[in-house]
Write a structure and sequence with these properties.
Elements lengths: L13 H9 L3 H7 E2 L19 E2 L5 H14 L2 H17 L11 E6 L7 E8 L2 E8 L2 E4 L3 E3 L19 H12 L3 H4 L11
Helix pairs in contact: 1-3
């Protein structure tokens, strides 16, 4: 879900990353920015907990717009829609876990987004850990990277009933799991619905 070498010029991420930094001041900027070699750049977690970084819930409209431009410039259209769908799906989970929700995500930028610099950014929250590293505008790494969804299949919300955001990915995973022998799986079985 990351762009190919043929990405259009308008999708280069240094511009929206720089804009997000410009729009963020004081203590919020200190939460948003870190050095490139900060160990946080290599960490990830999907479990709901207190996190570091700039909390989306505390962002202004302009900051959120810049963040969306950064996500759009870093992923394909399909990737952007998948990531934002996972984020917006958290309002269902929020009914059971009040600390979750569509704005319970944090962003950090590591290094200086510039043409000849190594830099990266991270977006993290429940069921999502997106970590991208660049040299200028060239993507050189997209790990660690985690996407998940809960509920797996929306059942409680009438307007979204039946939605399964990761249908294809879970179908492929289910087929792989079904082909494991007991020794290959280490005795672990799939705890999710395996699509046909």
């Amino acid at each position: 879900i990351t762009p190919t070498m043929a990405q259009p010029l308008s999708s280069y991420p240094t511009t929206p990353a720089t804009e997000l930094i410009r729009l963020t001041t004081g203590a919020s900027r200190a939460s948003l920015t870190r050095t490139f070699d900060d160990p946080r750049r290599l960490t990830w977690d999907r479990i709901p907990k207190a996190r570091e970084g700039l909390h989306i819930a505390s962002m202004s409209i302009d900051q959120r717009t810049a963040l969306h431009r950064l996500i759009q410039s870093s992923l394909t259209s399909e990737g952007y829609l998948m990531i934002t769908s996972i984020m917006y799906n958290e309002d269902i989970q929020q009914k059971r876990e009040p600390d979750l929700g569509r704005t319970a995500y944090w962003v950090e930028i590591f290094g200086t987004p510039a043409p000849d610099s190594l830099w990266g950014w991270q977006l993290e929250g429940h069921h999502l850990s997106l970590n991208l590293t660049y040299h200028g505008d060239s993507l050189i790494s997209h790990t660690p990277f985690l996407i998940g969804s809960n509920p797996q299949i929306v059942r409680e919300e009438e307007d979204r009933s039946g939605l399964a955001y990761l249908y294809l990915e879970e179908t492929i995973a289910g087929r792989i799991v079904r082909n494991f022998t007991l020794s290959q799986s280490g005795g672990v079985s799939a705890t999710f619905t395996i699509f046909p």
